[in-house]
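for the writeup, i need someone to sanity check this before i put it in the appendix. the sequnce is what the collaborator sent (i think, or maybe the updated version? ugh). structure was predicted straight from it, no edits. if anything looks off just tell me and ill rerun, i have time this weekend
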Amino acid sequence: MMNFFKNTTPSTEVLLRIAADAILVNLSLIAALFLHYIYKTAFATPIVSHGEAFDSLLLSYISTFLILTSVSINVLYISGFYNRGRHYQASYKRQAALKAMTATYLIFALVVLFLWDTISFPRSVLIPSWTLSVFALTVARTYMHRVPFLKQIIERLSSSQTPEVAAQRILVIGGGGYIGSALLTKLLNKGYQVRLLDRLLFGTEPIQELIGHPNLEIMKADFRQVHSVLQAMRNIDAVIHLGAIVGDPACAYDEDLTIGTNLVATRMVAEIAQCAGIKRFVFASTCSVYGASDEVLDEKSLLNPVSLYARSKIASEEVLTQMASDNFSPVFMRFGTIYGLSGRTRFDLVINLLTAKALLERKITIFGGDQWRPFVHVDDAAQAVFLALEAPDAVVHNRVFNVGSNEQNYTINQIGDLIQQMIPEAAVIQMGDDHDKRNYRVDFSRINKELNFTPAWTVEKGVRQVQAAIESGKVANYQDAQYNNYKYLKEGGIELLDEQSVEGRNDFINSATVQLAYNMRFALNDNDWTTALVAKPVKIELPQAAASV
């Protein structure tokens, strides 16, 4: 049987909760025995003397308390009270306490029956003791954290724990894409055990060199499907969520698909991660959230999205921010415009596209030209994700990091001139105004100072890399749909995605339903989930105007 508990060494906090539960169970047993004592000495026929009744019940307690304590703690542990219980909602905590204590007393009753000749225990005490135990555990789990001095004790114990242990088993969602295919190599080279969850719409070529690696598990599945995500979260320490419909044209092609993939599915993935006790959640966002501005923008600047892609990312950031807690730590990576080669290279991005056109068509077509963009190489983007994964909670918890460098803020005209200098056979051709309203210059001081991130690549090196790939024939046709997200969707990719559209595309799935499914050891299929467990629909609000984060 698969081990569902990621950490077998109990922390001080867990040991305290085990001790508290043991005390509650024993107090419940003592209270039930005391009620039996009152009955025997006041109402029974014949009435038993106080001394005789006390001696009898004391013997009953002494002979059974170790058995009951041992059974109850083991059942509670197996039920997830000490590794997932803190994530349960109040209603589910009551159900879990009822089930755990029922199982405990059934086992306890069988043991007492089996040892009847050596144990003196009144059977009439079982039901009152069971009832009191359920009540005590429910109250403790649901309400005790609201008592100020008890909450302070727990927080002090939590803060006094040994330093956090780095994650070892990583789930990479969308790891077969542009950034993900570059990230996988870094994780595997560092010794991580990696599980890849991806539909692999572009085949296995992006990760071909990694197939067969002993630390890589490939799960070809759709992250919009609940059962696939539940299965993928087993025995995972951290999640890197790169999966999305990426880019303004691709997102605009099918708005419902974009909302379902980028927002609704992200919420579902995060809730399953949270309920599975997975703390670190690295989320891929974009500097496109800044939209259009003439100022230099940092992580605290107003957001002014001008596309559905940007609005979907802002909404996802808001959802994850609201979910953040001591036990769930999202970190947001806002990537600049990416360039360069990876396992799944794209040629629908400025630098790669203009380099290819300069080489093969001898022209560099510029629309607009004065608009600013921050640029970052795909390998550096992957390195930034890697640093966010390994950083201490205190540095990255619920925080945004722009990914790039101040030196690589360029206007499109500057990029065209730079490429023309490197490929002088090509001519820069001005094509008039650009319909794309985006214009943003970004400050990257935070990631440089706090994550010690410094790009290894420059735009010049990236252009040379793309040039070498085209001239060597590694890239046969840069106009092929496999290199362009929008073209891929338009030429049939959207049909593959619609085959398994996210359940309840316009619904948010609440924590209680995810907890229930997780506790059932992933036994639910899609039909069970959608007919019985999906929460009441919640209207999705996508930001339209400026917002601050």
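The chain has two domains: 12-159, 169-343+375-408+438-456+486-548. The radius of gyration is 29 Å.
thx in advance!!
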